[in-house]
Specification:
The structure holds two protein chains of two kinds. Chain A is an alpha/beta fold. Chain A contains four helices and six strands, in the order E-H-E-E-H-E-H-E-E-H. Classes of the chains: A alpha/beta, B alpha/beta. Chains A and B meet through loops of A and helix 3, helix 4, helix 8 and helix 12 of B.
């Protein structure tokens, strides 16, 4: 399956996680990684399975590299029927009121554009004990099993 | 010819620059040089010890040294101070490109009247102490029961929060075990600008609401003078409205009060006098922590370097010499902003490297190893320190940091001898 890992990031942590997931999945899958700021919603293809890895910034907002993508999604309203995706959020429970809001905003806007979300959103807490990859990789393997 | 790049300073700006440059110039030899034996600068020693999620950017930086081929040369100071291993000129002779990313760590003074008064401390010094920075090993401030915090940015709120927390509130952090300030009963945070111009982020205020036992108020002479849509002031009002059942500490916010001078009684600090438009406010206190920003420590002739360069806004001081992070930008901007800036500077450096005519090969890191060999610390030395600190973590802490230089070097030396 062709897998496309797209990150929305402010500090680079989501980018690092995508690179780690790409490395872990590279046997047996065709995996590419891209920054959401270099991706336009109308370029998404039904051939690929999209995994959005997105942090949260400021007052529970999207990180800067996801903003143009989100704006295009909500203003140009492309029809993303046939597009399948999963979302993994990076957050920090130090700021619990807005914990992982960014990934929720992104998932909701994709669903509103008729894309199909596969499985539950995964989340990581930067203030927790586990690193992001050890949570995201098993989560992603479940999503891939559901998507194939 | 392999381009040899030295980045001076292993904090976020230097590491982000190494990360971006490594992707653009896969052939370049990149070495991050650090004054301390261990890496990560502000991420390890400046970000508050109870913000471990923010400190987690170090995982990205670890990857640089573990997998991406970037070198680490620790325990090497560059500059003009007597402890420096090399001058900037000497370093430039060894590398094709040198990037200065040493930050700005010296506390800006709240004014001459405040200097030399016992009981007045800078937020940088205090933050280093709370982060177990080796240069704070001899620092033992006395805060007393009543503290005035000068400043209204996020650092001032960090200081306020760490003074306000009890031992249990530090769970999961690497704040020194047993270090909570139970004797502090009253904290006044005073910003010189009106409330609507204060620089703190609302999430910083909401975080305070999670500390039990704080009675929060807005000072009598302070108006929260803006529209209801200001999230920061709304967060403050919410915080001041919720009153705890059992009060352990009192916190008070004051805005629009420039500090005029410290008050003394029998030679000791007794308070701070504030003044605006001929009106005065005196706050009694036992100590003052000034969190009003940072400046250059002069050890790299920053102002002369930047003033002499016409292109310093791009980061380039001269061909082969760049500035990054706060050293370049001044003491403003968050970690993400400095990341974006470091990426731009890396692109410029990559252009310079690509356009450079073939010339004599510079020795690069090999010359540092030849000259400084044993005294230089490596990334694997840091990994050992990291393991030792994590293994020593007491109950309720994620690590116990080694807080002085001789001990840090001894731990490294012991391991080397055991190998």
């Amino acid at each position: 399956m062709k897998i496309s890992l797209l990150y929305g990031t402010e500090t680079g942590n989501a980018e690092l996680l995508c690179e780690e997931l790409q490395e872990a999945l590279s046997d047996g899958h065709e995996v590419d990684v891209a920054n959401l700021e270099d991706v336009s919603p109308d370029a998404l293809s039904a051939e690929a399975f999209y995994v959005f890895v997105c942090s949260t910034y400021g007052e529970g907002e999207l990180p800067s590299s996801a903003i143009d993508f989100f704006t295009a999604l909500t203003e140009e309203k492309p029809d993303l029927s046939g597009i399948r995706f999963a979302v993994f959020g990076l957050g920090d429970t130090t700021y619990d009121e807005t914990f992982n809001n960014g990934s929720t905003i992104l998932a909701d806007s994709l669903v509103a554009a008729n894309a199909q979300q596969i499985g539950p959103r995964g989340v990581h807490d930067a203030s927790g004990d586990e690193d992001a990859e050890s949570i995201a990789l098993p989560w992603l393997q479940e999503r891939l099993a559901e998507a194939s | 010819m392999t381009a040899k790049v030295a980045i001076v300073g292993a904090g976020p700006s230097g590491c982000y620059l190494a990360q971006a440059l490594g992707k653009l110039c896969k052939e370049a030899e990149i070495t991050v040089i650090e004054k301390l034996p261990v890496p990560f600068g502000l991420a390890r020693y400046g970000v508050a010890p109870d913000h471990q999620g923010t400190k987690a950017v170090t995982r990205q930086f670890a990857k640089l040294f573990e997998k991406q081929g970037v070198g680490f040369a620790g325990n090497l100071e560059i500059g003009t101070s007597p402890s420096a291993a090399l001058s900037l000129e000497e370093l430039r002779a060894l590398f094709d490109v040198v990037v200065l990313a040493t930050g700005l760590s010296q506390d800006r003074s709240p004014g001459r009247d405040f200097e030399g008064t016992p009981g007045i401390y800078g937020s940088g010094a205090v933050t280093r102490l709370w982060n177990s920075h080796p240069e704070a090993a001899e620092f033992s401030p006395e805060f007393g029961a009543r503290v005035v915090v000068l400043g209204a940015g996020n650092v001032a709120i960090d200081v306020l929060r760490l003074l306000a927390k009890a031992e249990d509130d530090f769970a999961g952090s690497d704040f020194p075990a047993g270090g909570a300030y139970d004797q502090v009963r009253e904290i006044h945070l005073v910003g010189r600008s009106p409330a609507d111009q204060a620089k703190f982020d609302p999430v910083m205020i909401r975080e305070l609401a999670k500390i039990p036992g704080l009675a929060v108020s807005i000072g009598e002479g302070t108006a929260l003078n803006s529209g209801e849509d200001d999230k920061r002031l709304a967060a403050l009002r919410d915080l001041a409205t919720a009153q705890p059942d059992a009060i352990t500490k009192k916190i008070s916010f004051h805005f629009g009060w420039p500090a005029k001078k410290p008050l003394r009684s029998n030679g000791t600090l007794s308070g701070v006098l504030f003044e605006r438009d001929g009106e005065e406010m005196a706050l009694p206190c036992d100590s003052v922590i000034s969190a009003i920003g940072y400046e250059d420590d002069g050890k790299l002739n920053r102002s002369a370097l930047l003033d002499g360069a016409s292109t310093h806004e791009t980061g380039q001081i001269a061909p082969g010499l760049y500035a990054a992070g706060w050293f370049k930008r001044g003491p403003q901007g968050t970690i993400p902003e400095n990341r974006a800036d470091s990426q731009k500077i890396a692109a410029l450096i990559a252009e310079e490297i690509a356009a450079a005519p073939a010339g004599a090969e510079k020795p690069g890191v090999a010359a540092l190893q030849a000259q400084f060999g044993n005294r230089m610390t490596s990334y694997s030395d840091w990994q050992h320190i990291d393991d030792v600190e994590k293994a020593a973590a007491p109950e309720g802490r994620c690590r116990a940091k080694i807080s002085n230089l001789p001990e840090m070097l001894a731990v490294i030396e012991n391991r080397r001898q055991a190998l």
